[in-house]
Amino acid sequence: MKRAEYIPKISAYLSELSFRVDSNTSANLTDVNLHSENFYCRLLNLIYGYKLSNENELKLNTEAIDLTDTENSIAIQVTSTSALKKTKETVSKFISYQHHKTYERLVILNLVKKSKHRERYIGTDGIFQIDTVNDIWDPGTLVNKITTLDVPVIKEILDLLTIEFGEKQDTLNIPKEVNTIIALIDVLSNQANGDTGKGKSDNPDPNKKINRRFKDHAGSLKTRFVQLYAIYGPMLVQIEESTPTSTPEVLKRSLYLQKHSDQVLTNSNNNPKEALAKLTDEYCSLLYSKGIEYDETAIEFYLVTELTRCNVFPNET
């Protein structure tokens, strides 16, 4: 199905852009954020059928709003800051500058993963408020909406991303180890669509697995995880926070990993170190066959991390 082919690619593009924005924001580099306003203007018009225009092309840094559509009475702020303080400041300025008299709805689009605010509504009761559940979006929100669209529209969105960033997404200059993990997640998701099977345990217990089931290898497994986490851990956290992935997709990927890794472990006489090496080699070969430049150690780290989460070598029920 074309839908199943297009969606993971779109998700990968958006997650890489999110990672780049997050990295540049940390370094106080805002060019990519300004570039994102124009890009998201076109993207949102495709996804939602809006007629948005970029206010900052007409007036630099229009207070509280970046993209506007008077016909649909919606204004959107594109931001790389998801903090509650920023949200409150945006809504306050939106009201102060009387934008609520022109636009019925304000949406805050976070270029990185949005934060969950405890307050459901922010603003002034009786004048204007935003719903922090429905009016704050991030890349995951967009992907979830894209999955509901007709295939021709999804293809048009993918074409926009391909034109914008290139077939191999080279213009984003994402570090190889980051691309490796993103590509591996994408590959595992595609594998999961074909065969998930049934997981071994509904109650993961990594302590039981590593310290008891694999007690002869517990020391070396823990040491290796600590070594790899020092290098790749922060990257994986950032990728998982910025990668728009639905709960069903995560579950399918987990079930696939559980079933497949358990088969590899069985064929390795229940030796986790040998099985991990085989899995690492397998996914290195798979990425290589797809023409993806990879970091072998990043693949090993991802698999070891999934081992601690009981998605690799799941516990017996």
From TrEMBL:
Pfam families linked: SMEK_N
Classification via InterPro entries: SMEK_dom
Coiled-coil positions: none
Region Disordered, residue ranges: 193-213
Stretches assigned to the SMEK domain: 9-146
Bias (Basic and acidic residues): 197-208
Protein name stated in the entry: SMEK domain-containing protein
